[in-house]
Specification:
Elements (H helix, E strand, L loop, with lengths): L1 E5 L9 E4 L9 E10 L2 H8 L10 E2 L3 E9 L10 E4 L14 E5 L4 E2 L6 H15 L8
Antiparallel strand pairs: 1-2, 1-4, 3-5, 3-7, 5-6, 6-8
Amino acid sequence: MLAAYIEQLGAPGTIRYGELPPPVARAGEVVVDVRVASVNHVDTFVRSGAWRTPLTFPFVIGRDLAGTVAETAPGTGFEVGERVWCNSMGHAGRQGAAAERVAVPADRLYRLPDEVNPEDAVALAHPAATGLWPDPWHGG
């Protein structure tokens, strides 16, 4: 499968695009055929090493995605063919979203209603969720 990935922390020039083995759904995971992925400021922090998080190299970059369920482990509650989105990949040991297929923890995956454009969902998901997130620095 094709993916954008890094083999070390660094500047944008460390990003590679090429073949990596496709993911397999482990317990509690859903494999998604990615239709749309985005890049946001968090991705630059993770790639550069400015924001330390556990990474396994090669590391697929990217945080946000929308796509279709391709494979699912038992008990996840998702069905093959469902439209879904996620805005929390590429952090805390999870591979990123910039690949043809991504294994997503089921508790971080959401159904995408038919009337929602995948491009719009990915463009808005992370900024909107950040704006709604409780603010631990101000008692939220």
